[in-house]
UniProtKB/TrEMBL annotation:
The lineage of its organism: Bacteria, Pseudomonadati, Pseudomonadota, Gammaproteobacteria, Enterobacterales. This is Inorganic triphosphatase. InterPro entries: CHAD_dom (IPR007899), CYTH-like_dom_sf (IPR033469), CYTH_domain (IPR023577), YgiF (IPR039013). PANTHER family: INORGANIC TRIPHOSPHATASE. Residues 218-433 form the CHAD domain. Residues 2-202 form the CYTH domain.
Length: 433
């Protein structure tokens, strides 16, 4: 098994030539483009996908390879996942060649091999540069082609920075250099994920409002912070993709996700000093302005400033960029229970909301939108330890108030305000109200 670590950029079509020229100046070992044809396999009931696996045979210059990838972690455009590669003498699946440990119960499911059929394919030219950065080996692959499933097809235009040996930080360093030029944005969808989407009928992708964050019972505050930022980053990534694809409302969701990042940094402000995130917040401010002003999704998301802000968040998260700012006392504090942290902060946010909205505000409601949004976002990040239905309903009332204020529906505003301020806390079970 090897651990694949790669950072994926989607390249704007217009920027491909300039990018290639740029890559040629980096001094790496160049490999001329080669055609890669990949067939992905699946059972009729989607067994591999339901186990977060992807299986393909790749053909390149008459040589064949079978690869099984297992879902790992995707942070922004950084993909980290286990993969197994086996050389084949002919383009036919032979699952027995994969080690037994890859299968959920430690053995190859009996009827899997007989059920697998080709589901979709990717066909692209890969041009490569092998580069050394700070003693680490990185393969840069420029992939141009398409992903196809039945009647559906989508172009592929990607640059992948794959760590061959060494440290992930080298990949991030190189990514920072490259992203300073126009034309790149981080990509969180693997080629397989795109293929599956096409194979399932290419349904329009829908907006996904931020959900309640779920964190394991024994999580520390630091793990809570990481999970919250990962959620915000994935919301940002997902809606950016939708915005480029022309989905209505996606731009607001991109801005909402960036707002969520800020609110998370404020929520954890007692554990992570503000100076630890100063650089990140500066980049966020600049790219929020660009996104708010730009009318075209393409020019906004391929703008270096926007791409840099998202890369900075990815890097901050992956390298735990707050750590150097924590002394021993702060280290101990951030290792404390996230459950305890959640309870304390839920009470604080609820108290703030009830104070602000405890009485009718006349024509002053709109002024309170930022505060209301920050509190709703924080509560979404903290409510994961409680009954999801009860917590969602509690939050939905405040979201209803927010919506009514934004759409200036006066009767609804008072209705939701009255409901919201009389809700019982969902996080206190001990009668301590
Ligand atoms: O060549 P790989 O293994 O990086 O795979 P790919 O065909 O680029 O697909 P993806 O990296 O999107 O899984």
């Amino acid at each position: 098994m090897t651990q694949e670590i790669e950072l994926k950029f989607i390249v704007n079509n217009d920027a491909v030539d300039a990018l290639r020229e740029r890559l040629n100046t980096l001094g790496g070992e160049h490999h001329a483009p080669s055609q890669l044809l990949n067939i992905y396999y699946e059972t009729p009931d989607g067994w591999l996908r339901s186990h977060d696996m992807g299986l393909r045979i790749r053909g390149e210059n008459g040589r064949y390879e079978m690869t099984l990838k297992i879902a790992g972690r995707v942070t922004g455009g950084l993909h980290q996942r286990p993969e197994y590669n086996v050389a084949l003498s002919e383009p036919e699946l032979d699952l027995a060649l994969l080690p037994a440990e890859v299968w959920p119960n430690g053995e190859l499911p009996a009827d899997l091999a007989s059920q697998l059929q080709p589901l979709f394919s990717t066909d692209f030219n890969r041009e490569k540069w092998l580069l050394e950065v700070d003693g680490s080996q990185i393969e840069l692959a420029l992939d141009l082609g398409e992903v196809k499933a039945g009647e559906f097809a989508e172009p592929l235009c990607e640059l992948e920075l794959e760590l061959v040996s060494g440290d992930t930080r080298a990949v991030l360093k190189l990514a920072n250099q490259l992203v300073a030029e126009e034309g790149l944005r981080l990509g969180s969808l693997s080629k397989a994920a795109r293929g599956y989407h096409l194979a399932q009928g290419n349904a329009p992708r829908e907006l996904k409002p931020t959900r309640i964050l779920k964190v394991p019972a024994k999580a520390s505050i630091e793990q809570g912070l990481e999970a919250a930022l990962e959620l915000a980053l994935s919301q940002w990534q997902y809606h950016e993709e939708l915005w480029v694809r022309g989905v209505k409302g996606a731009k607001s969701e991109v801005l909402a996700a960036m707002g969520l990042v800020r609110h998370i940094l404020m929520l954890f402000g007692g554990n992570v000093p503000r100076k630890a995130s100063a650089h990140l917040r500066d980049l966020l401010t600049q790219s929020e302005a660009i996104i708010a002003a730009e009318t075209s999704a393409v020019s906004a998301v391929y703008n270096p400033q926007t791409a840099m802000a998202k890369l900075a968040l990815t890097e901050w998260l992956v390298t735990k960029g707050w750590q150097p700012f924590l002394d021993a006392k702060a280290q101990a504090k951030i290792a404390d229970s996230f459950k305890r942290f959640s309870d304390t902060h839920l009470s604080r946010h609820a108290a703030e909301l009830k104070t602000v909205f405890g009485q009718p505000l006349g024509d002053q409601y709109a002024d309170q939108i930022p505060r209301l949004t920050r509190n709703i976002d924080s509560i979404l990040m903290l409510a994961g330890y409680y009954d999801e239905k009860v917590a969602s309903e509690w939050i939905a009332t405040w979201q209803g108030l927010r919506h009514a204020i934004m759409t200036r529906q006066h009767i609804e505003i008072e209705h939701y305000r009255n409901e919201a301020i009389s809700e019982e806390p969902f996080w206190l079970h001990s009668g301590k109200r």
